[in-house]
Prior knowledge:
The chain has 263 residues and is mostly beta strands.
Amino acid sequence: MSIEVVERFGSRESTEGDSPSIDLLLIIRGSDDDVAVKVAALNNTPLVYDGLVRQSAHVKQIGPALWEGSVRYGKRQKEPETGESSYQFETSGGTQHITQSLGTTRYAPEGQTAPDFKGAIGATADSVEGVDITVPQYSFSETHYLPTEVVTGGFKAALFALTGRVNASAFRGFQPGEVLFLGASGAKRGEEDWEITFRFAASPNVTGLTVGDITGIAKSGWQYMWVRYEDTEDENAHRLVKRPVSVYVETVYYSGDFSLLGI
């Protein structure tokens, strides 16, 4: 038995404005197969109606081999053109292991003095255990539509070489050393251009840090800082304690020229 599709009364209700739409309302007879009914609804309605494109189809069975259906038409989504860009960002919490606190409150039994570890966290006789904390993270990405002639083998090699490097000069409002390039992914759109997404993470440069009695420490966003501890006598508590005696700021990422990204 063939499937019959007819437009029902009240069809073609439309909305004008920034988000125009038109709904074609249908009566569909001749099958209990919902997939066949949806296919029939699509086959019997135009792809474009009154300048709007077909976006969705809905069917609902109301009796044996009898269905109500609707097909919605809406504004065609504009494809990004060559040279256009889009931007996304995200703030989230990451985990970092630290061995120094920002401040310490000490307690001890009456008549005794709690040893002063100068901010060392979880200090024992043999080590400083530290603690895992949640720290803010900022990541962002940019999608660019680049002409085919720009995305050469040399350009792809430059993206590869810059992955895992930090910005040598100011970039997107961030100071040198604050942005880490996480890499890029791309796909060709026809013969005209490439859609390429560039991913980054940012961490602020800091100055004036203090660790124990050590002051004036400066650290770039993606440098790694660690602390060396030694046994030192706490004259007030009359005990040997672990205290920070030196701080090391290590450069663990090469810097790169982000202008080679071409964005």
